Every structure is written in structure tokens, then in C-alpha cells.
Amino acid sequence: MAETSPNAPIAPTFWSKASDLPLIPIGLLLIVFIIPAFFAQWIAPHDPYVPNLGARLQPPVFFGGTWEYALGTDRLGRDILSRILHGAWYVLAVSMIGIAVGVVVGTTLGLVAGYARGWFDGLVMRLVDISLALPAMLLALALAAAIGASFLSVVVVVGFALWAYFARQVRAEVLLLRNSDFVARSQVAGASHVRILFRHILPNVTNTVVVLATLQVGIAIMLDASLSFLGIGIPRPTPTWGLLVSDGRDFIATDWWISFFPGLAILLTVMSANMLGDWLRERLDPRQRQI
Amino acid sequence: MLLYLTRRIASSLFALLVISVIVFLLSHLSGSPVDALLPDDATQEQVDSFIREWGLDKPLWQQYLTFLGNALQGDFGTSLKWPGEDAMGFVLDRMPATLKLGGLAILISVVIALPLGIAAAVYKGSPIDSLAQVFALLGQSMPNFWLGIILIWVFSVWLGWLPTSGTGTFAHSILPAIAIAWFQVSALARLTRSSMLEVLDAEYIKLARVKGVSETQVIWKHALRNAAVVPLTYFGILAASILTGSVVIETVFSWPGMGWVAIEAIRGRDFPVVQAVIIAYAVIYMLSNLVVDLLYVVVDPRIRHG
């Protein structure tokens, strides 16, 4: 997160001094997350699912292994690197769709609540309070027990965990915007409420939503990883990163690479997403800088 | 102040009510609650008496009232996975283990994060500050379950200093508590730093310095007292994330608390215990938030007199 002293220069952090674009996080994000997510089937050296008992528990290269299995293999002889690469797609899909659900639900409710005021506003704000007061993990546990874990249940949990932040922030901005001149003039000109909301007010809150969404990427990925680690995320055999870490947890003493590298992938991805989010916030949202 | 507290308590109770509705509805989502709440080999007589006891032949809202009434008396039915155990009783037996771990995690986060945040603010731009920022970035980005596994690898397997899992001695609780606290340390340190920086910039601090008050006095007496309000607001979030952390970390370390029970119950499709555990977590969470609100009233006179 950004520096928040009012008198601080607009925080050039250690990576944005060198260049305006945060190249390190963008590069890391591309290499570890986005390129694997879209191109895993072409760049992965081995099949992520098919066991190869002849190649069981190969150590990583530089630790007694070979480039054939650069990050080692698991107990069934499956290539860790290939499994991480193939897992990226599911991590990306769950976090992006989950965030999209949160953005659409939260922004719409926030827009209408802030513009309409009255009982609807009260209702939405109550729901926001409750949602913020309910740890997403509890909903994840309940859903997993009731309908079983699936792609859909994880998306629901991520969307549920995030929508309230968007609703609260957007509503606060709309409350300020609805009294501004351009809204009053649109009303005088006879624009419908729907048109005012989506053509005139929505573009003014887009920056906020984009910044907030970027900052939530890390949270979404972390939530997804925790759920799949616990076995209440996307079910096996899908190699989501949390599941890969959990695969190796009983063998950390001897075959550390099974857990280590998938966890490193989560760490690098979440870290770059957070750095990118901070950078975007400083660029797009000058008000938050000063808080 | 009384009004403020009454409103907070009312909204907590309302949130609990909503949770109970969600939990109730979810037991119906999976098909018939008879399937969810009774073992597969239940006899027809057991099914009939279960339907009568929980009013399953009545309309949905009446079923909910029955559920709520039973829940208020702590009756969530009998565990399926651990036969003969009362679901809520079983969960409550595990509660002290979870609270112990959570308490230690909070202690660790405060003891590390506050000095780190203060030092980073006072020596802004120094190596200590950079270290604190790198630490904060890592803390926010590292999955806690992975950290737990790495801690076991380093401190139990390599160095052999601490046990890998289980309970018993104080040594057993050190690694899991650190794994839970890690994320809080970074968040709390960052918050302390920024609120301390803001206070150090205030007029009354400048005045104190002009008056010739020693720098130690300025920092510890004048600045810290005011800067402490902001991190305190964070403790509500802290409770939620320690709760979430405990579910994950108890599983990593086989720590037999509520989180471990929750995951085992889900694996065993033990819905009565899952319901009980969720409600128990929610109550702990609401209570800790109320305590934070109370502390807040004590610290911040604007609320006390507002």
C-alpha cells in the first residue's frame, strides 16, 4: 500500500524511480501468471495430469535434478513446473470472474444507492455492513458443506468477499457527484435517471473501481489459494496452486520442492499484483494518496 | 455513548440472525435436510422422529423458527462423524485451543508490529524504514499456509528446535502462532507507521519540540498516544483475519481447534458440526468486534461524549 503522510512527496517507491511504468511487477506478473494462464498447453514441458512412475520424486535442477524436470516431480512423477503452469489458468479464471462479480454487483448497488438515497440506500448499506462483518471463510465453509466445493462456489465466495468494498466506495463518490452541476444540468435537460447514472456518473467513478479492483486481485488469489489448500476450492485433479502446496505438505522434510515452488508462484503473483495496484492508485486516484 | 453501544449490539445481533438464516437455508440447498443431517444408514423410525423433532413437515419459516429455537439452546443436533457427540458441545470443547492460538498470534503481532512501525516512522527513509516496507510487502503477499509449511521445514526439520505439529507444550504453539501473526504484523506495522507519520507532522508536536521537550518524550508521550487510535480500529479486522488464519493454520499444524474441526467435519459431510462451528465462529467474531468498539470508546473521547 502507498505511503500516506500528507506531506510526503508523491511516493516514488524503489521500483518506480527507475521508470514510470512498474516494469518489475508487470514482468513478473506476465512470466509467472498471465502467460502461463493462456499458453500453458504449449509451453509446459510435460502433461500435468498423467503419472509417470519412472520419474517419481525427481529433485529440481541444481539440487541434483535435471533440466528435464526443472522444478522436480511429485510422488506420482508429475512435473511440478507443468502443474504450476497449467494451474495458472484456474487461478486467473477464479480470481478474475470473482472480482468481476464483485465489481458488477458492488458498483451497481453503490451507484443506485448513492443516487436514489432513501430506503434503498439504507438497505444496501445494511447489507454492506453485514457482508463486511462476515468473514468470507465462514461462507466458504458453509457452501462447501452444503453443496460441495466447485468452480462456482469459489467464484461466489470471492465475489461475496469483495462486493461490499466496491458498493461502499462507489456510493460515497456518488453522494458527492449527485450534487454537482453536471448532474443538475443533465436533469434539467431531461435525461433519464438511468442515463445520468450510467452515462454521466459511472465514468466519474471508473478510476476508483479500477484501482480498487487491482488492489483486490491479490486478495482474490490468496482466498482462492487458501480454499484449494483446505480442499474446499476447485476439486481435484485440477492443479490449482493451493492444492499443489497441500500435495507436498506431508513430505516437506524430504521432498520440499513439491510445496515450495507452487507457494512461490502464489507469493510472486500476489506481490506483483499488490505493487501494481499501489502504483495504479498513486496514478489514478489522487485523493486516496492524501488519506 | 449508550446509544452508540446499543446500536452496535443491535447490529451484531442482526448480523448473527442473518448468518443463522444462511446456515439454515444452506442445509436445505443440498436437497433434503434429512440427508444432510442424518447418517446414511438411519432407520425409517429415526427419520420419522427427526422430522417430527425439527418440524420438517411444516412450512419453511416454521422450520427456521424451530431451528432458531434449538440453536438458541445450543442444540444443533448430533455429530455424524463423531457418533454420540453433541455438535455444539464438541465444538465448544475445541474453542480454548483456538482462542489460545489466536491470543498468542495477537500478542506476537502487537509486540513486533508497533515498535517496527514506530521505528519506521521516526527514522523515515532509513534502512529500518526500507526493511519495514519490504517486510510489509512480503507479509501481505505470502500465503500463510505456505509460510507454515516453510516454518516447519526450517525450524522443525532442519534445526530441530520446535515440534512439527500437534499440541501439548508451549513450544507446539509457537510456529502456528507466528504463521497466523505474520500477515497482521505487516498490516499493523504499516498502519502504525502512517498514523505515526501523520501525528509527528502535527502542530502540537512541533510546539512540543520548540518548547524543548526531549525527542524521546515527544515520540513516546505526545505522538504515540494519538497515533495509537488508528491501529486500534484495525483490531476488528484483525479478529476476522485471525479467525480465517486459524482455519488454515490449524489444518497445517494438526492443531485440534475449531478450524481443524470445521475442515474435518466438511470432509466427513458432518453438517450438524459444520453449522455449530460456523455459528460459534460468528459469535466469537461479533464479540471481539464489540470489545474493539468498547476500547474505541475508552480511547477516543469524541465517541465517548458524542
From TrEMBL, chain A:
Domain ABC transmembrane type-1: 88-277
Membrane topology: Multi-pass membrane protein
Alphabetic keyword roster: Cell membrane, Membrane, Peptide transport, Protein transport, Transmembrane, Transmembrane helix, Transport
Cellular location(s): Cell membrane
Main localization, broad class: membrane
Superkingdom, natural source: Bacteria
An individual GO BP term: transmembrane transport
Record-level GO cellular component terms: plasma membrane
Record field: transmembrane: 23-44, 88-116, 136-166, 209-236, 256-280
PROSITE patterns: ABC_TM1
Family the entry assigns: Belongs to the binding-protein-dependent transport system permease family.
Name listed for the protein in its UniProt record: Glutathione transport system permease protein GsiD
Species per Swiss-Prot/TrEMBL record: Flavimaricola marinus
Automatic annotation (TrEMBL), chain B:
Keyword Transport: yes
An annotated GO cellular component: plasma membrane
A Pfam cross-reference name: BPD_transp_1_N
Domain ABC transmembrane type-1: 95-296
Alphabetical GO biological process terms: transmembrane transport
InterPro entries: BPD_transp_1_N, MetI-like, MetI-like_sf
Keyword tags: Cell membrane, Membrane, Transmembrane, Transmembrane helix, Transport
TM stretches of this protein: 12-30, 101-123, 144-164, 170-189, 229-253, 273-299
Domain of life: Bacteria
Topology relative to the membrane: Multi-pass membrane protein
Localization annotation: Cell membrane
Protein family according to the UniProt entry: Belongs to the binding-protein-dependent transport system permease family.
Name of the protein described by the UniProt record: Glutathione transport system permease protein GsiC
Originating organism: Flavimaricola marinus
Source lineage: Bacteria, Pseudomonadati, Pseudomonadota, Alphaproteobacteria, Rhodobacterales
Gene name tied to this protein: gsiC_5
